[in-house]
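Project outcomes to date are best conveyed with an example. Our students and postdoctoral researchers have been running inverse folding experiments weekly, and each run begins with a structure described purely in tokens. The record below, which covers 463 residues, was selected by the lab manager from last quarter's runs and is presented without edits.
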């Protein structure tokens, strides 16, 4: 039996209208304004004719003295959130004058506009209007006369709207939202919502590239390493302040010693882990400099660190390294750096796991890696346990009765592990590997060739 819906009439009540489907109601009604960040005021700088991203970034760096919230709008625009800075620069008029002065110093033309939303300020500036909109209630009215081209929509979109007689921001805002989104796309509708403040726009804050570069001109030329170390001390003090303020560390430090006629002498200090201690960096660099023969006396010195990394101090374990399984991560990094400083970078190597099944090619010599827990590759995760000591080349074993011998008969204690690989690079192998015990109880890793004459070989020794 189909259920029935009974409507009771209430005396004096208005007749009910049938409800529209949910999807139609959502298209017919504009969304409620999202709570744009209350109290925001954005300054938009339009720089006509600017095409250099480098110049734009340099200007953004200079304007960070007015507010930390600076956003790039390439190729010719900048946005600054300045509400909290007005009382520091004598209000809007004082801030406008100082922003204009900063652009004149770099010989840049400027159109400056203020509005409660970043999209509105940028649109006004690109339209060439130095508007100063501080009341959100008047935002739509002051934006209405602006030309549609200031939004920088795709040319085909602007042409289609122009054929409909829509050439200003106010005219496009009066179009039905559902029909506009269906014909011109949701992206343009979102931009209109950001323009009027219905939707809050999230802006990416400009972050300049962090790097350390300091140079010191010497009063007299130096060729003694002890005095050179003292001359570098102020540069390391500046490096320590730089790293402390930014809570970061360096993994590579370059020292340049400049001479009168010879090319600069470069000394690069590569670290096993990010270091924040400038005194330790100075000590390690001094050991590197001791091994360098200077072609001429030094007349200037320079320190460079181009890629500082965020640093978080790790927690220390309860046990000392070597006690009850205590880890020695920090000590291992210091040991690697000390060995490289004294023996040279080419004398200290690391080992890395390669994705491959052939034991001879499952590892490679690399530069000392950062001191982190070892990474297991997909190939290594699926392999059986391997011996720590792999022989440089498999050693043939004697055979008696079809079984291998090494000073006596070997006892096979595992099932065979078959490895067939390498056909694509002329290094093909086909072997059956076993774990074995010799007469002294030493665990060995042996294999039997699958092709004739089916010889037995020793390939590794377990610890």
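After processing, the design step wrote out the following sequence:
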């Amino acid at each position: 039996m189909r259920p029935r819906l009974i409507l009771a009439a209430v005396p004096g009540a208005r007749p009910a209208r049938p409800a529209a489907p949910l999807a139609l109601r959502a298209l017919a009604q504009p969304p409620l304004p999202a709570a744009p960040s209350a109290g925001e005021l954005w300054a938009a700088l339009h720089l006509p004719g600017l095409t250099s991203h480098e110049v734009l970034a340099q200007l953004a760096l200079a304007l960070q003295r007015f507010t930390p919230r600076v956003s790039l709008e390439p190729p010719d625009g900048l946005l600054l959130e300045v509400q909290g800075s007005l009382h520091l620069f004598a209000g809007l008029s004082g801030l406008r004058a100082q922003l204009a002065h900063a652009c004149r110093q770099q010989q840049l033309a400027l159109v400056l506009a203020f509005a409660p939303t970043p999209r509105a300020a940028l649109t006004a500036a690109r339209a060439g209007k130095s508007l100063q909109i501080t009341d959100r209630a008047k935002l739509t009215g002051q934006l209405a006369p602006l030309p549609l081209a200031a939004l920088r929509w795709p040319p085909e979109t602007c042409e289609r709207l122009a054929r409909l007689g829509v050439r200003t921001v106010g005219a496009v805002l009066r179009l039905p939202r559902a029909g506009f989104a269906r014909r011109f796309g949701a992206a343009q509708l979102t931009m209109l919502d950001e323009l009027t403040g219905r939707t809050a726009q999230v802006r990416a804050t400009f972050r300049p590239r962090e790097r350390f570069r300091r140079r010191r001109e010497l009063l007299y030329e130096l060729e003694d390493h002890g005095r050179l170390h003292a001359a570098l001390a102020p540069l390391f003090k500046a490096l320590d302040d730089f790293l402390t303020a930014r809570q970061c560390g360096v993994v590579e430090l370059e020292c340049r010693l400049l001479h009168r006629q010879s090319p600069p002498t470069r000394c690069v200090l590569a670290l096993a882990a990010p270091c924040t201690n400038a005194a330790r960096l100075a000590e390690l660099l001094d050991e590197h400099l001791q091994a360098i023969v200077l072609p001429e006396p030094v007349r200037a010195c320079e320190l460079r660190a181009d890629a500082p990394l965020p640093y978080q101090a790790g927690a220390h374990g309860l046990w000392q390294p070597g006690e009850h399984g205590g880890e020695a991560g920090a000590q291992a990094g210091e040991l690697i750096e000390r060995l490289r400083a004294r023996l040279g970078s080419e004398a200290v190597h690391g080992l890395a796991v390669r994705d491959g099944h052939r034991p001879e090619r499952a590892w490679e010599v690399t530069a000392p890696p950062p001191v982190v827990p070892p990474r297991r590759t997909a190939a290594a995760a699926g392999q059986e346990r391997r011996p720590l000591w792999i022989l440089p080349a498999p050693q043939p074993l004697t055979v008696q009765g079809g079984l291998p011998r090494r000073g006596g008969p070997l006892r096979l204690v595992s099932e065979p592990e078959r490895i067939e690989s390498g056909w694509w690079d002329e290094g093909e192998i086909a072997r059956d590997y076993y774990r074995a015990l010799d007469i002294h109880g030493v665990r060995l890793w042996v294999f039997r060739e699958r092709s004739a004459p089916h010889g037995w070989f020793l390939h590794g020794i377990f610890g």
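The two ends are 80 Å apart (CA to CA). The mean pLDDT is 83. The training component of this project remains on track.
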